[in-house]
Design brief:
The complex is a heterodimer of chains A (257) and B (261). Chain A has 257 residues and is mainly alpha-helical. Chain A is built from 10 helices and no strands. The longest helix of chain A is centred in the last third of the chain and has 37 residues. In chain B, strand 9 and strand 10 form a beta hairpin. Classes of the chains: A mainly alpha (257), B alpha/beta (261).
């Protein structure tokens, strides 16, 4: 091993899988041996069995669907508003000076702390869940997109001007396309964060969703179900992340050349 | 014949008080190829950027065909030292950039673009992205992109400065050939004496910072210029003279006293 020396693709996959194997092996060892009591931590086999039971008999698929819908819905609303605002802030400095201080402040407001307020305002329906995701992702998105657009290479902007582009042309034909891959990358990252907010939102005042199932299981001390719920979130997160990465690669081949 | 570009009393003082350029006058006639030669930091790039409209003069006026320059525009095409092709566009799309901005129909854009891509010898590379091209090829594309816009004057800011010596000489010949065919008016900034003489019909020498024009020397070498003129007597005599001019300025810029004669 030497610093920064790349690893062969096959070895990379083998090493990545190896850690999962090790993780499950340690988990199995401490639970099957009785070292950790079942009340605190279910063993992997029980977890898989009750996971199947959840999906087959207790309608957990619907919960998963609800959670995915909430994440994507809230994130979609946040993205649709944040991308244009971020681009405007990055491009036009007075707009940035107007919004930036507030957005910088707002992004440190913990989305989960808004839940009691949002329940008061929006009840315990879907609007409240979407609002939590929105608050958690909107401000982060705006700031990161504004920075990306603001960092556009100045010489490209100047080249566009000398080619006869106007201000509008510079925004739509230089700032936006040059920032697009990084904006897509920002969306991918913040979508990951949105997953943590949705579960918190579902822990309180929800009647469906993965978070709701986890709270219910807590009352029953069903650690097997809780762990299954957590793993489902992880798997969905991993799959969406891969899909997003693949989409970005397909959309912006020039950024990887 | 009135000059197409007229620079009168133009100076530039940066915020903070650094004088980059002292009051400068320069008239550029139609079909002139003027090379501006000077040590680094002499304000030659600043002068060019002000003509392009990317910087504003502190004093003085710049007029193009009698109209004052108020900002950047398609009538002054520019080739930068840094690679400024748009990385998300192919060679063809890059060359079409200005034409699309003018609102030309797509078919006509492509026809013009392909013509200039051919002129810089890049047929077959239309679909390549900039990162797939060598530095020399990128600058040739940038040249085609500027020429496709049919500017009144072409501004070149050390366009071959980042290239290796051999590529640079090839580029000089290529540009010389294009200029002989198209007779564009060119303002070309460089710190390379050979390049200044080989390319220019006039060499304008600038002093060290704060810059001003030190001398304005016509290059009496006939066109078409082959590469061999670099060893001709006219060339070497002119080179000796300009080397002396520049050397004084470089020494001054470096803070060294004038060398004893």
């Amino acid at each position: 091993m030497r610093p920064l020396q790349p690893v062969a693709p096959g070895t990379r996959i083998a090493l990545g899988v190896a850690f999962f194997v090790l993780f499950f092996a340690v988990w199995a060892a401490v639970t099957f041996s009785g070292y950790v009591p079942k009340t605190f931590l279910a063993d992997p086999l029980t977890m898989v069995r009750s996971g199947w039971d959840l999906l087959a008999n207790q309608g957990f698929a619907k919960d998963i669907g609800m959670t995915v819908w909430r994440v994507l819905g809230g994130f979609f609303i946040a993205a649709v508003l944040a991308v244009p605002l971020g681009v405007l802030m990055g491009a036009y400095k007075p707009v940035e000076a107007f919004f930036e201080p507030f957005v910088s402040f707002a992004r440190y407001l913990p989305a989960s702390a808004f839940i009691p307020l949002l329940i008061l305002w929006a009840g315990i329906g879907e609007a409240q869940k979407l609002a939590v995701i929105f608050i958690g992702s909107f401000f982060q998105l705006v700031l990161m997109i504004a920075v990306t657009v603001g960092n556009t290479r100045r010489d490209l902007v100047e080249a566009a001007y000398t080619l006869g582009a106007g201000d509008r042309g510079v925004v739509t034909r230089v700032l936006m396309p040059s920032s697009a891959p990084e904006i897509a990358e920002t969306l991918r990252m913040v979508l990951g964060w949105a997953w943590t907010y949705v579960i918190v939102a579902e822990l309180i005042g929800a009647s469906s969703g993965i978070g709701h199932m986890i709270t219910d299981s807590q009352a029953l001390l069903a650690t097997d179900q809780i762990i299954f719920g957590i793993i489902v979130i992880g798997v969905i997160g991993l799959v969406t992340d891969f899909a997003f990465k693949a989409l970005n690669r397909a959309l912006f081949p020039w950024a990887r050349l | 014949m009135p000059p197409i570009l007229d620079i009168r009393g133009v100076s530039k003082t940066f915020p903070g008080g650094t004088v980059a350029l002292q009051a400068t006058d320069l008239a550029v006639a139609e079909n002139d190829f003027i090379t501006i030669l000077g040590p680094s930091g002499c304000g030659k790039s600043t002068l060019l950027r002000m003509v392009a409209g990317l910087d504003t003069p502190t004093t003085g006026t710049i007029t193009l065909d009698g109209a004052p320059v108020a900002g950047p525009g398609a009538d002054r095409g520019m080739v930068f030292q840094s690679y400024t092709l748009f990385p998300w566009l192919t060679v063809l799309q890059n060359v079409c950039f200005g034409l699309r901005e003018k609102g030309l129909p797509a078919a006509q854009q492509q026809e013009i673009a392909r013509h200039f891509i051919g002129k810089v010898g890049l047929q077959g590379f239309e679909g390549h992205f900039p990162k797939q091209l060598s530095g020399g090829m990128q600058q040739r594309t940038a040249l085609a992109r500027a020429l496709a816009n049919d500017p009144r004057i072409l501004l070149m800011d050390e366009p071959f400065g980042a290239l290796d010596h051999q590529t640079r000489e090839l580029m000089q010949e290529l540009l010389q050939g294009i200029w002989e065919a198209e007779r564009k008016t060119v303002l070309f900034v460089t710190h390379d004496i050979d390049e200044a003489i080989f390319m220019g019909s006039r060499v304008v020498v600038m002093t060290a910072r704060p810059g001003r024009i030190k001398s304005d020397v016509p290059v009496a070498i006939d066109h078409p210029r082959a590469y061999s003129v670099k060893t001709s007597r006219v060339f070497t005599e002119l080179k000796a003279r300009l080397t002396e001019d520049i050397r004084t300025e470089v020494r001054r810029a470096a803070g060294l006293a004038d060398a004893p004669a």
